[in-house]
Amino acid sequence: MSTIGIFPASGGLGTSTYTHLLKAVPASNVVLISRHPEKTPQIYKDQGVHLRQASYEASPAELEAAFQGINTLFLISYPSHVHEYRTGLHIPALDAAHRAGVKHVFYSSLAFALPDKSTTLAEVMGAHLDTEAHLRKLAEQDPSFSWTSIREGLYHESFPIYTAFLDLKDESTTEILIPHDGSGPGISWA
Ligand SMILES: NC(=O)c1ccc[n+]([C@@H]2O[C@H](COP(=O)([O-])OP(=O)(O)OC[C@H]3O[C@@H](n4cnc5c(N)ncnc54)[C@H](OP(=O)(O)O)[C@@H]3O)[C@@H](O)[C@H]2O)c1
Fold it and tell me: Taking every annotated instance into account, which residue ranges of this chain make up the domain NmrA-like (predicted)?
C-alpha cells in the first residue's frame, strides 16, 4: 500500500483529514508532518502513525527530507491571505515534495476563481492559482507526477463574515444586513 503524507497535519483541516483517513488505512502508511509533532494526540501515536517535523519556512533540504518515502501528499495551504508570501512558501514545498519522489499531490485550494479558472478578483485565491499553475508545470515536465486541486467552498465556520459579523452570543442583535439580493448563484459551503 502506498504511503500517504499530510502537511501541515496539526490544524483543523489536517486533523480532520487524518482522523478520517486512519479509519480506512493502516497507521503505518500515514505520515503526519507538522511543526510540533510531539503535540499529536497519544491515541494516534499509539496506533503507530509516523510523525515528522517540518515548517513551511524550513530549508528546501529539510522539506525534502520530511517528504521522503511519501507517495501521495496532501499539501494544505499555508494559513494566510497574503498572496505573495503564501505562494513563496507553497512552491518550494511542492518542489521539495517532487524531488523527494512524491507522485501525487492533493492540494487544498478554494473555489474563488472566475469561470475561465485561471483568474480571480479575490486576494485570497491568488496563491491558490499560483500553486495550481506550479502543479500543472510539474506534471507537464514529469509524466509520472499528477495532482488534484480540491477547490473547497467556504468553510461554514466563516459564516459570520457573510452575515455582517453576526455574533450568535450577542442577543442584542435583531437585524442582519447581507449585501446580496439572493438571486445570484449563492454560496457553496464546506
Ligand atoms: N475554504 C475556506 O473557507 C477556508 C476557511 C478557513 C481556512 N481556510 C484555509 O485552509 C487551510 C487550513 O485551514 P485550517 O482551518 O485547517 O487552519 P488551522 O486550523 O488554523 O491550521 C493551520 C495549520 O497551519 C499550520 N501552520 C501555520 N504556520 C505554519 C508554518 N509556518 N509551517 C507549517 N505549518 C504551519 C498550523 O500548524 P501549528 O499547529 O504548528 O500551528 C496548522 O497545522 C488554510 O490555508 C486556511 O487559510 C479555508
Answer: 2-179
Q: Please report the atom of ligand 1 found closest to the CA of residue 15.
A: 16
The tens digit of pLDDT for each residue in 114-165 reads 777 788 888 899 999 999 999 999 999 999 999 999 999 888 888 887 787 8
Closest residue to atom 48 of ligand 1, CA basis: 155
Q: Could you tell me the residue ranges of all domains in the chain? A: 4-152, 158-190
Cα→Cα distances 146→2, 26, 61, 104, 136, Å: 15, 23, 22, 5, 8
Of 60, 102, 8, whose CA–CA distance to 16 is shortest? 8
Confirm if 55 and 35 have CB atoms less than 8 A apart: yes
At 62-109, the pLDDT tens digits run 999 999 999 999 999 999 989 999 999 999 999 999 999 999 999 999
- The sign one gets for the Cα dihedral 101, 28, 78, 39 is negative
Q: Whose CA is nearest to atom 31 of ligand 1?
A: 56
Contact 68, 100 (CB under 8 A): yes
Domain 4-152 sits in CATH 3.40.190.10: no
